[in-house]
Amino acid sequence: MQFSKSTDYALHALIHLGLSQRCHNVGIKELSGALGVSESYLSKIMSKLRQDGLVRAVPGVNGGYELARPADEISFLDVIQVIEGRQQLFECSNSSSQQHQLLAGQAAEPQEQKRSDKKDCLVEKVMFGAEQQLHQYLREHTLQSVLDETFKRCSRETDREAEDSETDKK
Fold it and tell me: For residues 76 and 15, is the Cβ–Cβ distance under 8 A?
């Protein structure tokens, strides 16, 4: 499974907005420059994020975009589902084959095949479980969790630079 570049840009754009949240909204020109992507391509991504309520467009000369919700309320799953869609990742495509019916626990007897309580294919069950685990992981990781880690790294780097500066003075 591979996510599109649009998802990559959307996540990075939202992180950039989260970093800028305390200062100001961010114009599309600044945002596209920071991400290294064309303004027109990024505008389409931002439009999707705006339509789904993840960002807000700020009108005016100094307008741009800002997060529509706090960063701790926007999960990676939210962003991925806006960009990639909310479809199921795996679906058994050959449900009429003997192999599928065997894995679904369906007997060859006509009476049992007519039952409405269809059993799950074992392959589909494993893939659905994996998808649920992935969704849970992505739901637990928010923009704020990435921002927090960024701030930690920045403060460690600043501390190291200060220590190096003190060492150079001695």
Answer: no
